[in-house]
């Protein structure tokens, strides 16, 4: 789960101004170390964020061809030597890689037998030495085709030979695309890396490779040459900046009224035909399964809740356990919910279930992502780029997409008031949340309880408390508490109850129980002492309001404790490994 970039251009470009700029746009994919190499053989790598590396690069350093990498460690600790690029012992071949080579130990042993020495603990060094050995007798293309046969695992790789302007790129499972500019080509893990320069893109499919020069590219697969034409990507060109906000997380919470409005408009215009087609697919399905991870799973629980209430058989299943906990056949409709569209757990299920021939609908924020391209139909949630690792505005927009589908299927939901209500929730509660955050900042455990629509929200709020504030939090069904977890409730433990008119009775009874055991009870609802919600929110509007307050709470707790909010430890935005 890393970000890779390769640029080759007719004219020399600034390493800092071009290569590192493109890499920075992928930093959300991993940020524990970074590095670059140029065709002249100049390279550097360092532990820490890309800023650390960037501060050491001479602003005058130029090249025509270079590669760069931002890492999220999987094989080998976070050290300078394990950072990419990697190279052979003569430093003639430089390589960056995203993914995991599962049989690297076996390949490494074979290479060691033939005299190769390894200086890192990474699986990537196996790729570079493998290609190096093959290229003694083969062309780079033949060496890559041989790698396709011998390697097991996931990979997107870009490499060059010192002194040459050609970049070689190939992939299986991990994402890779090519941006085409005038006199310049950019290879990258995703389109954001070059969205400031071009909209013309070619996507790699599995087992494809490309030879890329500044003015040309040629794709191949295992059968021979491919004629791949670029597609035009429509994507916002606005630069992504924090503006007046201290962190991207806060900015992304505050921009939700605009993001929500943008999606609602598109669901009624450019995306309305797809919404209708998808609602037909729902009506024709025997069962509906939502497939997702993390925050997207919480949104999926709401999708399953809405469809179940409309009388459809619908379940949400976490991707890594999908096949163990669901029945799939060709009458099943699978919603693959993934804001990045690149989550490997989701992609690998989509591949594994292909032979059952289910229909697939993607709900994604990234158009042209792998999940989108694997689906029969899709909804784009149009939240704009989300930089903070924690999902906020993409969660809200995923809910809005689900609400629109439920509306078309007969649920009496109106989306019209949502943007204004979000605005009101934020403006009325920001200060109130800060106050509660101060009180809760030193707690070790927090419990969040919900029922009906607020159960998934309780899980979502708890996830953010763990992820951003590093507080152990449990988000659960209010009714399940008494079946065990209540044993952990002791005097002074904070319990947050998510109360809406539709769940009041059950919620209040659970909260009375924990109060009786000495818990400090806080509520998000109309009679809350801590927060002020707009009057008469329906269930769906409430779910968004409660989420925003919960997200703000985890944000301000983290801020009080000086935590790295946009890039929490051990995490990356796009989890492209299993
Ligand atoms: C939490 C978070 C993650 C993601 C999960 C799935 O704030 O962002 O739990 O929701 O990794 O990511 P996508 O939606 O890209 O598949």
Please give a quick description of this structure:
The protein has helices spanning 15-24, 50-54, 104-113, 124-134, 140-150, 248-254, 256-268, 272-284, 294-309, 344-352, 370-374, 393-408, 418-440, 454-469, 504-516, 539-560, and strands at residues 3-14, 33-38, 43-47, 62-71, 86-87, 93-101, 153-161, 167-172, 177-181, 184-188, 200-203, 208-213, 216-221, 224-226, 231-232, 287-292, 314-318, 332-338, 359-364, 377-380, 445-450, 472-477, 494-498, 520-524.
Comma- or semicolon-separated keywords:
alpha/beta; binds fructose -6-phosphate; Rossmann fold; 24 strands; globular; 3 domains; single chain; 16 helices; 8-stranded antiparallel beta sheet; 35% helix; Glutamine Phosphoribosylpyrophosphate, subunit 1, domain 1; 578 residues
Your description of this structure?
By secondary structure, the protein is α/β, with parallel strands linked by helices. It has 3 domains: 3-232, Glutamine Phosphoribosylpyrophosphate, subunit 1, domain 1; 240-416, Glucose-6-phosphate isomerase like protein, domain 1 (Rossmann fold); 429-566, Glucose-6-phosphate isomerase like protein, domain 1 (Rossmann fold), CATH 3.40.50. The protein is built from 16 helices and 24 strands. The strands form 4 sheets. It has an 8-stranded antiparallel sheet. The N and C termini lie close together (10 Å). The relative contact order is 0.09. The mean pLDDT is 94. The structure holds fructose -6-phosphate (F6R).
């Amino acid at each position: 789960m890393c970000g890779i970039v390769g640029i080759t251009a007719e004219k020399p470009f600034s390493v800092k101004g071009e290569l590192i700029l493109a890499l920075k746009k992928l930093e959300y994919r991993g940020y524990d170390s970074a590095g670059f190499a140029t065709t002249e053989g100049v390279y550097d790598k360092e532990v820490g964020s890309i800023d650390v590396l960037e501060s050491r690069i001479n602003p005058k350093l130029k090249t025509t061809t270079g590669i760069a990498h931002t890492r999220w460690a999987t094989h080998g600790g976070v050290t300078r030597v394990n950072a990419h690029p990697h190279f052979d012992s003569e430093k003639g071949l430089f390589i960056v890689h995203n993914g995991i080579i599962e049989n690297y130990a076996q390949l490494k042993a074979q290479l060691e037998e033939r005299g190769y020495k390894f200086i890192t603990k990474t699986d990537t060094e196996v790729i570079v030495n493998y290609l190096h050995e093959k290229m003694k007798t083969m062309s780079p293309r033949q060496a890559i085709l041989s790698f396709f046969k011998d390697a097991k695992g996931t990979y997107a790789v870009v490499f060059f030979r010192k002194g040459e302007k050609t970049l070689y790129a190939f992939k299986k499972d991990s994402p890779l695309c090519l941006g085409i500019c005038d006199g310049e080509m950019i290879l990258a893990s995703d389109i954001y890396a070059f969205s400031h320069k071009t909209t013309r893109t070619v996507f790699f499919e599995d087992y494809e490779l490309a030879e890329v020069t500044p003015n040309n590219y040629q794709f191949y697969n295992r059968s021979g040459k491919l004629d791949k034409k670029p597609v035009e990507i429509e994507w916002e060109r606005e630069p992504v900046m924090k503006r007046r906000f201290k962190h991207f997380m806060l900015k992304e919470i505050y921009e939700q009224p605009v993001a929500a409005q943008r999606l609602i408009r598109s669901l009624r215009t450019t995306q309305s035909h797809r919404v209708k087609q998808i609602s037909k697919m729902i009506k024709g399905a025997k069962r509906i399964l939502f497939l997702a991870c993390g925050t997207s799973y919480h949104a999926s629980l709401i999708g399953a809740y809405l469809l179940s209430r409309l009388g459809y058989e619908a379940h949400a299943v976490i991707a890594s356990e999908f096949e163990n906990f669901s029945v799939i056949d060709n009458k099943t409709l699978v919603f693959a919910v993934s804001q990045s569209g690149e989550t490997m757990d989701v992609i690998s299920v989509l591949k594994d279930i292909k032979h059952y021939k289910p229909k697939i609908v993607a709900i994604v924020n990234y158009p042209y992502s792998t999940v989108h391209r694997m689906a029969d139909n899709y909804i784009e949630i149009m939240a704009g780029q989300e930089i903070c690792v924690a999902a906020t505005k993409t969660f809200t927009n995923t809910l809005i997409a689900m609400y629109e589908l439920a509306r078309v299927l007969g649920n009496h939901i109106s989306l019209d008031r949502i943007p204004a209500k979000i605005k009101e929730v934020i403006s009325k509660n920001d200060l109130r949340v800060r106050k509660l955050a101060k009180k809760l900042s030193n707690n070790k455990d927090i419990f969040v309880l919900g029922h009906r629509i607020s159960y998934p929200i309780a899980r979502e709020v708890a996830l953010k408390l763990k992820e951003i504030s590093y507080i152990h939090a449990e988000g659960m069904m209010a009714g399940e508490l008494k079946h065990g977890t209540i044993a952990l409730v002791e005097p002074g433990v904070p319990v947050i109850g998510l109360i809406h008119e539709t769940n009041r009775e059950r919620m209040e009874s659970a909260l009375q129980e924990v109060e009786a055991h000495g818990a400090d009870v806080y509520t998000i609802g109309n009679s809350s002492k801590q927060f002020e919600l707009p009057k008469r929110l329906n269930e769906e509007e409430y779910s968004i309001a409660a989420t925003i307050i919960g997200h703000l709470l985890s944000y301000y707790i983290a801020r009080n404790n000086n935590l790295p909010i946009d890039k929490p430890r051990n995490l990356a935005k796009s989890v492209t490994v299993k």
